[in-house]
Description:
CATH topology of the largest domain: Methylamine Dehydrogenase, Chain H
Radius of gyration: 26 Å
Low-confidence stretches: 105-169, 213-232, 239-277, 279-292, 476-481
Mean pLDDT: 76
Oligomer: single chain
Number of helices: 5
Amino acid sequence: MGPLSARLLMQRGRPKSDRLGKIRSLDLSGLKLLSEHLDPKLLSRLKQLQELDLSNNQLETLPANLGLSHLRVLRCANNQLGDVTALCQFPQLEELSLEGNPFLTVRMISEELVASGGIQVREADIPERPPKATAAREPRAKPAALKRPDDTPLSLSPNKRVCTSSSSAHVEGSDGSQPTLEPLHFLQCHSKNNSPRDLETQLWACAFEPAWEEGMSLVGRQGRARPRGRSRTSYLDWAPGNATCRGQGLSEWGAWERPPTRCCKDRKKELQGQTSQNVFIGLILNTGQAGATSQTVATCGGEAVCVIDCQTGIVLHKYKAPGEEFFSVAWTALTVVTQAGHKKRWSVLAAAGLRGLVRLLHVQAGFCCGVIRAHKKAIATLCFSPTHETHLFTASYDKRIILWDLGVPNHDYEFQASQLLTLDTTSIPLRLCPVASCPDTYLLAGCEGGCCCWDVRLDQPQKRRVCEVEFVFSEGAEAAGRRVDGLAFVNEDVVASKGNSLGTICLWSWSQTWVGRGKQSTLAVVVLARLQWSPTKLAYFSLSTCPAGEGIVLCGDEEGNVWVYDVRHILTQPSPLPAAPQAPTQILKWPQPWALGQMVTKTMVNTVVANPTFTYLTALTDSNIVAIWKRQ
């Protein structure tokens, strides 16, 4: 296709006219247009143009002086765009499609565009690329292990709501020297059928995007917005002290303050002969400043995976897979070489759950670029190797842990995953944790039957291995109390684990425990300290640690509280350490946000995760609420 002509514009424009100035809609899709074919002098004659379709061409950039001041809808899907800062020339833009441009950078949309107007987001089907060889589909069965048998819906009335007086967000145990954490946002972004009345979807896992390239996250951070169309996220209000709640509480429209720039997705429904009902909703904003830590968190629960900007509370991206129930997410960053020889850095999110599939999501582009049929039963958890960016561990209800090498995606953005190791377990694995001091050598797993360790060295001949060592704790050795449902390294040596004894979190030394191994298959851990926690008999409250060496341990409970422990002073005390469990540094009380005009007074916090600098804390609940706290 050569340069555009006035005759072509009149042929493809609507309404039909012999004058360019009267055309309101123009379809230039599928013409193999290059960026130099867009003649600003010619296109600027379209004085009344409101809708322009440039999809399925070969555009690398948009001219900066098109003069289309009345443009409201712009479709640029399936091009080669790498920079779209020229979008700021369209002050009336409401709807934007950038799907299928997988190498767009987050610097593409200027702050002026974010402030200029709201661009509607539309749902569309995003196909998954089918694997080359697929197993027969297994019958769907919901595993019971992650469902608490005696759950009650939020301790609310049958109408899922309760009427109480306003109360402040209360912090217990703080002596004034500890950092103050204040509730910032409460989001209801995993609702089934986008219903604002959904207070039942259970949220299970979250992970902060790793910051890289001078600390910059792949997903934008600036701006806060009000959608012009229907919002897919509900925002809950909470009342600090006697302050007046802002907004209308939980509503379909949310509580946004400025119009966002949104990417609508209208990719073809069929790819390689298969149809998918998966949906990706995307939002791309301008980045924060270089050197800032990641404030982008991925959350999962129900049929959705959301990527949220913690500062603004904006759901940047939302991926939906009908019939799935997501249990785990994990990030990695890959370096990809394009056909033109340019190196691009991808932030890839792996998500897995009920169906035993691992979905590899290129979040920035809004594209599911791979599906691994990893297990025949549900995947309880997954994690990437800290030393090999393409190595992924998956743990399933089939009592197997598999190490995969995803490889680097090809020019068609396809992964060719290969299986490296299979680790057999005697019970369902719940948490995975590469040993911090030797992640290429040993893997820890918290299981229904206890805490186990495997040799994961790839230079060994056996590709299928059994547990080498089972760790025994001095308390709770009976079968009912052996479950380890929380596991994380506090530093290179100290492990925090939960579930082996009622009402406590155990801190133990990996090095001191391992040095006494010999040829034993069962090994008693060397306990350094015990932390006081909730006396609940309910399970599957996952703990986490702050990854920046802050010495912070976090865990939720059945009342909606967040237990915060600063264990640095405990670990530096001379032996012997106190035998009694150590009290938490702080307990962040559930702030009782408003839902459906009433307060949610109680919920279960399934997992709590902080970003590396402990600036933001994200808590996921049993009641479809994502709670975000900020360190003051």
